[in-house]
Amino acid sequence: MRPIGIFDSGYGGLTILHGIRQLLPEYDYLYLGDNARAPYGSRSFDVVYEFTRQAVSRLFGMGCPLVILACNTASAKALRTIQQHDLPLMNGGQAQEATPTRRVLGIIRPTAEVIGSLTQSRHVGVLATEGTIKSGSYNMEICKLHPDITVTGVACPMWVPLVENNEADSPGADYFVKKRIDQLMRQDPLIDAVILGCTHYPLLMPKILKHMPSGVRIIPQGEYVAESLSDYLSRHADIAARCSKGASVRYLTTESPTRFSQQAQLFLHEQVHVENISI
User: Fold this and answer.
1) For the segment 153-197, what is each residue's pLDDT rounded down to a tens digit?
2) C-alpha–C-alpha distance, residues 66 and 112, integer Å
3) By CB atoms within 10 Å of each CB, which of 60, 132, 199, 259 scores lowest?
4) Backbone phi, psi, residue 59, to 5°
5) CA distance 82 to 85
6) Where are the alpha helices (DSSP H) in the chain?
7) Whole-model pTM?
């Protein structure tokens, strides 16, 4: 079996996996959550890079020809270095242009690619973790592709804990969600599209819809990452051919399988079997 690897620091990447499986159900998938070392959002660039490199190497070692970093922080702080420095070594010294046998993709660029068609005012907001906002990755990617768009980002440090502690529907969540949305709109009232730049945030969608001003489009990533991956595989037949198609999914965590299984139900609405792994 040669599954597509999906990596996240915790549970949020399950929203990305769900979107991908909806569009590409025929492939095998291997999900790895580094829950023992989560969250990544406030960690330094060096630490996030090292943790992510270890996870990618582990997934490659388990037969994955393609790994998706389904974590905005890992995509922001580690993807470029892994692609430019580590991937050639992992591919036996090949350059990426030399049709390598393994690839690593992130989830920021797919959203940046489509944002131009989703905003009329050309003013876009990003709600994400502290690490993703500080990295400036969304600003760089969007401005590279759409130089006429103004990007404003706000960190939401309490949003992930709300989700992971099953408080997303609680009255207390309203305070923290409204606070960050109001902060974003004060910084740029012309924003007409907001990217949810953390894979946990779709689970706060009822609260986000409640407090977001009318007329502002909310953009979760799952759908666009899935469409981007489908397009990528259609353009890279060699990579697609290396990925096995058995319509299976396997879940791994560096923490408690029991806790992971319980939390996964919040994201997937189904029970899953989970295995413990060291990386």
Assistant:
1) 999 999 999 998 899 999 999 999 999 999 999 999 999 999 999
2) 21
3) 259
4) -65, -40
5) 5
6) 13-23, 45-61, 72-77, 79-81, 87-90, 108-114, 130-135, 137-145, 159-164, 171-187, 205-211, 222-235, 237-242, 257-268
7) 0.92
Contact 73, 34 (CB under 8 A): no
Rounded to a whole number of angstroms, the distance between the first and last alpha carbons of the chain is 20
Dihedral sign (CA 165, 168, 169, 171): positive
Span 61-114, pLDDT tens digits: 999 999 999 999 999 999 999 999 999 888 865 544 445 689 999 999 999 999
Rounded CA separation 125/156 (Å): 13
CB 149 within 8 A of CB 123: yes
Q: Token pair for residue 40?
A: 């990544």
Burial class (CB in 10 A: 0-12, 13-18, 19+), 18: middle
pLDDT of residue 96: 45
Cα(252)–Cα(101) distance, integer angstroms: 23
* pLDDT score recorded for residue 93: 58
Rounded Cα gap, residues 33 and 158, in angstroms: 20
Residue recorded with tokens 């006429």: 148
Q: Say if residues 53 and 43 touch (Cβ distance below 8 Å).
A: no
Q: Are 146 and 113 in contact (CB under 8 A)?
A: no
Place of tokens 């130089």: 147
Catalytic residues: 71, 198
